[in-house]
Design a protein that fits this description.
mainly alpha; two-stranded parallel ribbon; two-stranded parallel sheet; 10 helices; 4 strands; globular
């Protein structure tokens, strides 16, 4: 008997084969004796509307939307930013086995002023990067690198450089340079955002293409 909690993120991005597999799983769960299994799925668009447009299997859309919850974007519930930020900081510190940190003076005000187009994922990413700069158990306002900090209209700071050489190693090298630039040369922060180790970052910058880490 299946038991537990399953969370599926962005089911609206599932291709047809994945939709068929998910529908098969849901049918299997339905045919089993009642258990303690809970499946929760998230989507950025209306699944029923997708089904009406032929983009999602109607049976799958019906099963996934039997019970629906609408969660407003973070910019519409700014009262949640403070408790969410502290909880995320606690989880990030636990993940990296670091001492707990708190938001310093001005840091919360800075978070509240941001529009958060990436919602909680963006908040978590900003806090994780800020943790690398935190001092004395406190995240300062200047440690928070927000997308609004990047000046608009400067290609060197806002968009990856135009790449004439489309060889794979050249594309990788230029992208790494771009991420490093928007992080003001902070290699550890850039490596975290790229999802690679710092040693891999150094090898890529040394023109040695590394596809795995």
């Amino acid at each position: 008997m299946m038991a537990g909690f399953i969370y599926l993120d962005r089911v609206d991005l599932l291709a047809s084969p994945g939709q068929g597999l998910l529908l098969g799983l849901l049918k299997a769960m339905q045919d089993r004796p009642p258990g303690r299994a809970v499946l929760l799925a998230s989507s950025d668009v209306s699944l029923r509307q997708m089904a009406g447009q032929g983009l999602l299997m109607p049976d799958l859309a019906f099963r996934l939307t039997a019970v629906r919850f609408a969660v407003p974007p973070l910019r519409q519930r700014r009262e949640d930013i403070a408790p969410l930020a502290q909880e995320l900081l606690s989880r990030i510190c636990a993940r990296y086995q670091q001492r707990p940190v708190t938001l310093g003076p001005g840091a919360l005000a800075r978070l509240l002023q941001h529009n958060w187009p990436g919602n909680i994922r963006e908040l978590a990413s900003v806090l994780e990067a800020a943790l690398l700069e935190a001092a004395n158990g406190m995240v300062r306002a200047e440690d928070l690198l927000l997308t609004s900090d990047i000046e608009i209209g400067k290609p060197a700071q806002n968009a990856p450089p135009r790449i004439e050489n489309l060889a794979l190693d050249a594309v990788i090298h230029n992208h790494v340079q771009y991420v490093l630039e928007i992080n003001h040369g902070n290699k550890l922060r850039a490596a975290r955002q790229l999802g690679i180790s710092r040693s891999t970052l150094y090898r890529v910058l040394g023109n040695e293409t590394v596809l795995a880490h």
